[in-house]
Amino acid sequence: MTIQRLGVCGAGMMGSEIALVFALADVKVRLMDASQEYVDKAMAKLEKTLDSGIGRGFFAEEDKPRALANIETFTDVSTYGDCDLVIEAITEDQEAKGALYKELDKVCKKDAIIASNTSSISISVLASYFSEERQGNFLGLHFFSPVSRMKLVEVISGMDSDPEVVKRATAMVELPGKTPIQVKDVVGFAVNRILFAMWDEAIRLVEEGAATPADIDTGCRLGLGHPVGPFELMDNITIDLTLKVSQILEDAYGDRMHTRPTIKQLHAAGRLGRRYGRGWYRYQDGKRVD
């Protein structure tokens, strides 16, 4: 399935790397965020990602100039009128997403596919922010972090998602080499429900004094074959996002997905993860020091 032009809303870690993988597949991408500062930082980060990947054999030297040339940056969605696919990857907040969708509803062409990269919020609920005629063209495309390395995309159909649109979107995410799986529109979808259930038990072990975060991370890497342990991963995606998703899951499933007290304490203390210098672990210049 050919995409002539892709719009990505949100130039954070997820949005910028979604833009990158499509740019590497020779799609013209428009990347936007609320300020020029944000998009400039995103582009600088993508340059570092490409340089690091070239050094480790993930990308070729010629990939960098080609990918960067395929990405244009903006601070609003007014130029998204000719985009075939628009992917929203802003903060995991229903009202913030809804406000953006109302803007997209006015701008996007009639047959444009619009998708959310939400990791937990119901697609059917998010669709309600669009006009009724637009809701059939809306679905969830949940990429995984880091997008430049992770192959999986959860494709989530809302109550009114057109099956043909879902089929087209599924083909679109295969273009940059991703592997899609179809998931019903349940809060948290498939992978995060499994992940957060595991995290709940991992945090319980720490709260009970049964094991340290470091030992649990080592156990999950060496005993379960995970690339990173649960506490490393929470720090990488931020404690802020961990808490937000955990609370969304708790609202939907009650004590089955209870938010652990320690996550709330870390958040309240400002220990938000790797990029902030402290989370479950301490960091200096992005590297763990304990």
Low-confidence stretches: none
Radius of gyration (CA) equals 19 Å
Helix content: 40-55%
* Helix/strand order: EHEHHEEHEHEEHEHHHHHEE
Give the biggest sheet: 8 strands, mixed
**Adjacency order of strands in the biggest sheet:** 3-2-1-4-5-6-7-8
What percent of residues are in strands?
5-15%
Write the layout of secondary structure elements.
Layout: E1 5-9, H1 13-24, E2 28-32, H2 36-55, H3 63-69, E3 71-74, E4 85-88, H4 94-107, E5 113-116, H5 123-127, E6 138-143, E7 152-156, H6 163-174, E8 179-183, H7 191-207, H8 213-224, H9 230-237, H10 239-253, H11 261-268, E9 283-284, E10 287-288
Parallel strand pairs: 1-2, 1-4, 2-3, 4-5, 5-6, 7-8
Antiparallel strand pairs: 6-7, 9-10
Helix pairs in contact: 1-3, 9-10, 10-11
Task: Name its key features.
single chain; globular; 3-hydroxybutyryl-CoA dehydrogenase; 11 helices; 45% helix; two-stranded antiparallel ribbon; alpha/beta; 290 residues; 3-OHacyl-CoA_DH
Descriptive notes:
The chain is an alpha/beta fold. Helices cover 45% and strands 14% of the residues. The protein has eleven helices and ten strands. The protein has an eight-stranded mixed beta sheet with strand order 3-2-1-4-5-6-7-8.
